[in-house]
Amino acid sequence: MIKLAQRQSVPWWRTEAADAVRRNSGLIGVLLILALVGVVTRPEQFPTWSNVSTVLTLASAIGVITIGMTFVMIGGGIDLSVGGLVALAGVWCTTLETQSYGPAGMIFCALTVGLGAGLINGILIAYGRLVPFIATLAMLVAARGLAAQISDRRTQIVEVDAINDIAATDVFGIPLLVLILVAVAVLAWILLNRTTFGRRTVAVGGNPEAARLAGINVRFHTVLLYALSGLCCGIAAVMVVAQANAGSSGQGNLYELDAIAAAIIGGTALSGGRGTIVGSLLGVLVFTVITNLFILNNLPTEVQNIIKGAIIVGAVLIQQIRWRDVRLAARRRPGEPPIAEPSPSQPTGDRHDSPHSVTPQISR
Amino acid sequence: MTSLPAHDPAGQAATHVAPLLRLSGIVKTFPGVRALDGVELEVLPGEVHCLLGQNGAGKSTLIKILSGVHQPDAGRLEWDGQQVRFTSPQAAMKAGIATIYQELDLVDGLSVAENIFLGHEPRTLGFVKRGVMRQHARELLGRLGHAEIPVHWEVGRLPAAAKQIVSMARALSRQARLMIMDEPSAVLAHDEVANLFRVIRELTSQQIAVIYISHRLEEIREIGDRVTVLKDGRTSAVGLPARTTPTSELVAKMTGRAIEYVFPPRRSATPATTGTHEQAASATASARQSSGTPKRDVPLLRVVGLSRAGEFHDISFDVSSGEIVGIAGLVGSGRSELLETIYGARRPDTGQVFVEGRRLRPGDVRAAVRAGVGMAPEERKSQALLLDEPVYRNITLATFPRYAAGGFTRSGREITAATTIAHTLQLRPPDVRRITRTLSGGNQQKVVVGRWLVHAGTRLLLLDEPTRGVDVGARAELYQVIRRLADEGMGVLLVSSEVPEVLGLADRVLVMREGRLIHTAAATELDEHAVLDLVMAGSLLEQTEGSPV
Amino acid sequence: MTLHIPSRRRFLGSVALGGAALGLVACTSNETGGDGSENTQVSVGGDNASPGAPVTIGFSAPAADHGWIAAITRNAQAQAELYEEVTFLPVEAGEDVTAQRAALEALIQQEPDVIVVLPHDGAQLTATAQQAMEAGIPVVNLDRIFSSPLAYRLWIGGDNYGMGVAAGHYIGTRLREAGIEDPVIAEITGISNLPLTQERSQGFADALSTYGFRVTNQVSAEFTVDSGQEATANLLQAAPHIDAIWNHDDDQGIGVLAAIEQAGRDEFFMVGGAGSRDMMEHIQAQDSVIEATVTYSPSMASSAISLARLIAQNRGMSDLVELGVPKSITLASETITRDNVEDYLPLGFAS
Predict the structure, then answer these.
(1) Chains adjacent to C (≥3 CB pairs closer than 8 angstroms)
(2) DSSP secondary structure string, B286-311?
(3) Average pLDDT in the B324-337 region?
(4) CATH H-level, domain C160-295: superfamily
(5) Contact check, Cβ <8 Å, A353/B31
(6) ipTM
(7) Which contiguous run of DSSP H or E holds residue A189?
(8) What is the pTM of this model?
(9) Chain A: nearest CA to C142, how far in angstroms?
(10) Is residue A312 classed as helix, strand or coil in its secondary structure?
(11) What is the CATH number of the domain that holds A53?
């Protein structure tokens, strides 16, 4: 009953959906501008369903990876190994031996390899106390090396039609790969926003010391986060393999940069504690739409890269301004009473004091 | 060099040596608070001038004004006979005032020489003359009697004492004529303090003045020339001779602060008392006697022989349910570390912690939480809160899984519970969906305390400096809350730098000094004088009734 | 699994053998030169296969990131095993120029009779190769050319420009025969900033222009399967109707074909590049849009080993009149179609 009453009292501009739009308005704006450019420059190709579904399909594998990356980054870490894990899982699940187990065996293999490598990342970081940057960089190199070793540097062609069909199947006109991304995203959104796991993730990344002192098992949770990212890489590996009809140790090249960039322009903080699934997906879309636009307009790769760089910077700047606005709005929300007790420490900058120094407001 | 004013009786020196620094009528107001209210200070060249005062007396604000961080609202600041106004730390530094901070503001990754000349490197055409710089650095360290510090080493490799010397060499390199040292001995071992004093004498012999801040009376006796005492933002004594002024007089000048806190009665029978803690204490003396004996055979908390190398040694005590136990002690006396060790955030070298007779697994916070222990750590922002999250999520940070069903959080139930707590704690504003960062310090602290109140199983609260950064009105409320919790059967272990707070709030007081528990007494048996004596000098001077534990 | 690194014992043994062989070569080769050819300027033919003095061949190629490079290393290894007297001494060249430079320097220390090297980057490794030459070790430069002729004894490599020309002629002829005016011709390049990519594109454009055609759509991939798939998926959206595609690289071609299949497009024909077995099989089976591929065959590594052996043994190519091996050999880019694919299949490399 109480719950119901509170639900009703939330005005529309304070609902989660409205908040998501507000927070990502910068990115949504960028996407709209890109779409407008597409419609104007290539009116016959860009706004077609065929093109839209191609863009979404190309966004699907990297989207799944970015979701895993978002969890790790909200938890205060970073996973540089994702590209290597995609290659390793992709190669491992396409060896002749694995292919002989059929599609289920291949998928199981890819997910297990991704999960296992992610677990190793997490254990090294949480219990081996390695810096995430170093541990996952080492994993990136090692996983790619192992992938090359397993495949003998050959491209392993997939003869299992069921796997190749994953990329060729539409369900109600929507590519299966896109549906996989949507499913993963919905699950991830629930996981982040509606479960204790998500709450712990934000706590662990936002203030690890506070989380620890509140009795949260920070290390164990860190392991889970990297395992989750690894699992996402396993899923993405199946998608990449299905799209290419092959597994090779060169797959997933530079995916770590794409995923990190997408998460960051989606508003995920490198310092942890902040980030959204919706934002990260929008970030991925911005990149895939840019690539699509450039190819539709037949522009050379060099120009693409320059403009991509500029858009990363621009989108992050816009995002930052949006965040600042949201914060200010939170500070002085109209229609609410001003804060009752202004703390004297804030305007004077005393919170930068040494922990031992004495705040001046004590006496009198 | 021979007739050092530093070694003259101070009163005489002031007559024929022009003061280096003279402050008069300095006022500094922060929103809602008058931190400094007419401070007088006079420092002569080549003297060690000690600044004494309790926490909150205004020492830090005064230092910040001298070092250009804050500008005074009123009053006169004379430097070398000229009236000046330092608009920035750079301006003060340029004039020749250097502050040696407690957390040394050195760059660990740079070499000793680079640190000394940071920002004013000897250079030609933009190239740093490294040879010259190292040579100068060596000379400066030599002037401080520490030529053995290798100038090419990274500062991060040096021990704290050596870092302090480097910091002073940096001040020398900027031709400082006044060095402000804020509790420099807090980070030093005993023999290192002796060395520090040697260096200070070296400085004063070169006519450099030192403002020395310390709580340790014996240090002031040894190194100081004159003492200025601050109390409640005013100077209660100016230019007392450091060696000869009796301790009782110094302590008297520091104590008797006009405290306006309202401490709640110790048992709900007695009405609230306003005024000094002595009044509060006497008014509730009878109430406490009834609560002095624990109701149960097994104490709520029993600490046995707890030690951690370099932090505290062989600490044993009990806390009963319904009892507030306060720990008094200086910064660096090991009190915060003790609290964190009890909580499992640090692992003890030896010793055990029992909650209701069951031993806690050492170094395991979750075991402590499961056993019903909650802690509000000293550093609210860095240790306790997710500032960008809503209030209710901070309140339920330790308990949100209890409201969840099958791993799915139920924000509605959390909000309801948090709202109840917010109401109990008189959180302002009461909207628990507000972002925590937007709350004032006092209300943030309530959020931290509230975290353990939604947890029905919490039986013992560890509060580390619960009122730091909390303004007067909110303090009284926090005190009420803490007392009410105790009345409802909660055990509370409280650490505070503020002696009146410990005396006014606690039933029983433990005094810690340099990692040891040196005294235990009922709060009524102690007064501010006695605690300050214990804390600063290690023993009771006039009173002898207390016996070490 | 390739075994690039021999066991330590065999490795040490081969160095010792190589050292001994050097002395032997010095005396025996003079004798054979004396009685064998009698100063007549005709080629005797066929005697290159006969065993000669023992030779140690050092070999360095970049760590394979795609099938072509992998095939280079495998071919070199296999060719070396054909000769009883050849000791193959491969060093892993790692991921970049620096790693390969270190590897080469280590190799020079071991004093092989000849070094075959496919550099990461010709210009940046020229000095190191020259160092080997100055130490008296002939260098056979494979594919990516050093910037100074002093740095190699022999260069053998493919013809990137020629590949483009071959592909351009195939496509130009086919389209002209079909009578298509103003055709849509798409090009899927490799890594776009590499000189070899630019040469291929140039050759392609030049050849097409002789037919009055031009490249209408160009996208670049990165020689990898997934990049080929991504670039092609976008390309197919950009051009709703295509007449012909040239894909520079058969490795990425697997991804290109996957994308084409996923899009359900078949109105065009495609020409590949390099000549992988997979593509040849598709050409043979006629089961996809690929009709032809222009070679840039990793078989050049096999030839390089053979020629390195001859250089070390001071022998010439038996079908040529000259006593020594030539200085420079450019392999022609051939066009493999359904008609001749049988012949080429054995040379096809596994992607």
Answers:
(1) A
(2) HHHHHHSS-SSSS-SEEEEEEEETTT
(3) 84
(4) Response regulator (3.40.50.2300)
(5) no
(6) 0.80
(7) helix A176-194
(8) 0.77
(9) 20
(10) helix
(11) 1.10.3470
